[in-house]
Amino acid sequence: MKFVDEFREPEVITKTSAEIRRLADPNRHYRIMEVCGGHTHAIYRFGLKDLLPSNIELIHGPGCPVCVLPMGRIDDGLAIAQNPDVIFTAFGDMMRVPGTMGSPLEHKARGMDVRIVYSPADALKLAEKNPDKHVMFFAIGFETTAPSTALTLMRAKAQGVHNFSVFSNHVTIIPAIRAILDSPDMRIDAFIGPGHVSTVIGCRPYEWIAKSEHKPVAVSGFEPLDILQSIVMVLRQLRVSEATIENQYKRVVPWEGNRAALRAMAEVFELRPYFEWRGLGFISQSALRLRESFREWDAEQRFDIPGVRVTDPKAAQCGEVLKGVLKPHQCKLFGNECTPEHPVGALMVSSEGSCAAYFNYEHRKTAIVTSIASVA
Amino acid sequence: MCLAIPGQVVELFPDQPHTAVIEVVGVRRKVDLGLLADNLPLQGEWVLIHVGFAMSKISEEDALDQMRTLRALGEAEAAMQEVQGYSLEESEVPEDSGAQKLLEDIS
Amino acid sequence: MAHGAGGKASRRLVEGLFAPLLFPSSSEPLGDAAHLDFNGTKIAITTDSFVVKPLTFPGGSIGELAVNGTVNDLAVSGAKAEAMVVTFVLEAGLPTPILEAEVWAMGNAARKAGVKIAGGDTKVVEHGKADSMYISTTGIGLPIHGLKIDARSVRAGDKILLSGPIGDHGITILLARGELDLEADLRSDTRSVLPLVGALAREAGPGVRWMRDPTRGGVATSLNELARDCGLGIVLSEEMIPVRDAVRGACELLGLDPLHIANEGQFLAVVAPEYADAALNALNLAQVGQDAQIIGEVRSEPVCAVLVTTRYGGSRIVDMLVGDPLPRIC
User: Fold this and answer.
1) What one-character DSSP code corresponds to residue C29?
2) What is the ipTM of this complex?
3) N or C: which end of chain C has fewer CB within 10 A?
């Protein structure tokens, strides 16, 4: 696969890990946060932690849109779909996320019309094909995904498709990063920046992290070599006490972002005054809702929703894990009451949430693994 | 939010400028080019696909550049060590030595 | 229900509910078929149900899956299928040509696989109650000489063989459903693996410890089950696992792992190390086994788990599937 396989080349990976080892000061313990859930997933999938020296700790950040979605919002979306004329559509990621009365898949088993879509455009097409039904798209995602939802809504409006609406749970990444840095028990040395969000917002929005917080940021791609090179970049900066924003993912991320995408977002969405993030609490100006001009396609306006706030069990320490203060296995519920099969908290619910990723990929690895020689 | 894959534009539609078929090792899908309206891709170009939309063009030049940089890691180190072999004292590189320039080129 | 997807939930249903009620005194691990002894007469018996949407897809149809699936369950238990009986549960209103096509497909597949369809039954249920057609089969066969399949005989150092590329069937079905709008030149790999199992038995029989056909839940689920049953660990080498480009592309696009995708024409075999080369050779030389590979080995660690390693030294644990593999965008 072009633009994928090159960045998985074993010899170059070995070289890059050697460079990391060379750059890491043995007397220092580095805490590097990767913001985006996709990076968390990639780190585990490629076993990248095995390639790092023990004094480099990767902290998993809050960039998992499924993880930070409050249960109450899932209940709201499912409440809309209780109506037999409504088809509930969402990405596969949402299907197993539990609301208080079950996940979308469980609702499907009980007779609700629930369908997985790969694209919001598919949801719109479904609406066109089913004129006597209403198709509701349960939208999630950061700025990577919001422009696609926006464009879809613009198309719905232009084409006069009225049996379609969006329930927007889009959130923005900068307030989440700010919340992490504002947390008193936080100590992060550098950030691996969200590469795909940055294809939309560019690299400028991170400049305050370098200027005001003095932390280096490397906006990173998702292949093993991308992530490893980003670690090289921030280590080089830390070595000389520098703090700037670097674009590691140059082949894809434009420094100024994607104007057309930003325009589409601005036309369709506006910032909510505040929004609740599961595990982080209420954050102002951190989420998107449809503008008045798109009222007709706003599921929240067209339908009555319970709007009930659901709090997580007190024992679930999602907030601390989300902020990197606790490791997943340090939460009392981890592996017992809370597993991927029956998740209690936000971070176990999505396969890229820190707890789920840790459980699925690392939990049962033993010390012997690190010295396993190549097989066959 | 993050799963995006490089795909090659294999078919364009003159009557639908914001639609294309992309291919990823033999798997094809129609994608929306609306987010690249300011700079539509041509047949054969590579784009990054996320939820059925093209997000950005992929620069082959930048990709090659990155691989060159990474492949050269360790070579700078080796070059350094060669240079150091000529000095009698510490491993510091003199300001105006060729190895320093080499390092700057690569970083 | 997640219980049909072949992974953790299925296993719990079988182990937690069926097994204690139906075979309370058995301490044997559950296998793909039961080998019974009636006063010296040994036969193997298996049963299975087939539910697939759409009914036909590139490379096959539900009828072929039913025949090949039954033959394969017997084959990987170490038996040659001789006969099977079939039950159809049909949704009222199912057009006759569709039913005819499946019966024809089954007859054809049975002839190819050398198994006799000895009888069957049909039931018609209300419209909306059977997804067009469900097929249930029971197959019987005779043990293949020289094979003794038992997870408890697996030892650290044993090699793991895979008969061919994985993921073809599951991805073909996913694409055939049409919901994801992806196109690829892919076909289901449905076929009888009996010829390959036969070749294995002839060339390396005494060394074959265990076999399984990785259907729903994929290779990851089958090997996790093995790890649990033998109490050892399994380490796979990612670069050795054969995956077609198109399957890989679809999995990358959808965020799926080929190790979790269903196969209908492949099998895994655990072989003692001194027989491994002969075993692989036997498969590669057989006309349809040229893509077979040794993909890993059994180790004492990680206990009851499956680890996949990469060429550059990274590794990850691969668990059993929980429910069906779902596409993701994150």
Assistant:
1) P
2) 0.92
3) N
